[in-house]
Amino acid sequence: MTHALIVSASLIYFLIVYHHLGYPLLLRTLGRRTLKKVLKVPVRNYVNRDKDDLYPSVTIVVPAFNEQVWIESKIHNLAALDYPHDKLNIIIACDGCSDKTALSPEM
Length: 107
Hints:
- The chain has two helices and two strands.
- It is of the alpha+beta class.
- The N and C termini lie far apart (about 65 Å).
- About 0% of the residues are buried.
């Protein structure tokens, strides 16, 4: 009984420490590795079809605050969506950014 209690308490302690320290450190390490990769913009191969009238209009709102490092890749990602041009609206909302997020990226 005491052994099971010690094992379960140790497991709970480990999970709490991992949740607060281990996982954020793991994400930071993996994020730095993927950030160094060169961004490749996929080619948008959308072809207009008669069925396009059946698609609903979609608006994507991207709130951005000091996202200078990631905003360019997000814009490339959104530009590569396979959806009719006239049915897709993209709004990037920058509010009070203190970095260069609001400047247009050079494409």
